[in-house]
Amino acid sequence: MEKNQGKKETAESINYEVVEEVRSKMPADDTFEDLSMFFKVMGDETRLRIMWALDCKEMCVQDLAETLGMTKSAISHQLSLLRRSNLVKTRRSGKSIFYSLSDDHVIMLFEAGLEHINE
């Protein structure tokens, strides 16, 4: 008895021109690894709360901790991860270090995500 007996086979054709065009534009594997890590970092609720606060206003660790009801240690740990992923940047003023979202791309991604889920 044949394996596919009783099943309808569909005739699908592969458009090799499209396949090759997309393959030729596909980034290297390490680019996808970096992108995956980027979204994993952004995929944490605590880090998103920090990003939301920083989208409103540049803040120091103490202000973030008070705003979010967390310890300074916990905030510092999360900010470290966000800095390593280039999602936040720092500015020193005297003894204080202020954090903000790193650039317009990060702001746009964050705000677009909020807009998308609030539709």
Description of the molecule:
The chain is built from six helices and three strands. The chain is mainly α and 119 residues long. It has a single domain, classed as Winged helix-like DNA-binding domain superfamily/Winged helix DNA-binding domain (Arc Repressor Mutant, subunit A, Orthogonal Bundle). A three-stranded antiparallel β-sheet has the order 1-3-2. Helix 4 packs across helix 5. The chain is elongated and about 60 Å long. The N and C termini lie far apart (53 Å).
Helix content: 55-70%
CATH fold annotation = Arc Repressor Mutant, subunit A
The total of beta strands comes to 3
Helix/strand-derived class?
A: mainly alpha
Q: Termini, distance in Å?
A: 53 Å
CATH class: Mainly Alpha
Largest sheet features: 3 strands, antiparallel
Strand order of the largest sheet: 1-3-2
Top keywords for this entry?
119 residues; elongated
Secondary-structure map:
Elements lengths: L15 H10 L3 H14 L2 H12 L2 E2 H8 L3 H13 L3 E6 L2 E6 L2 H14 L2
Helix pairs in contact: 4-5
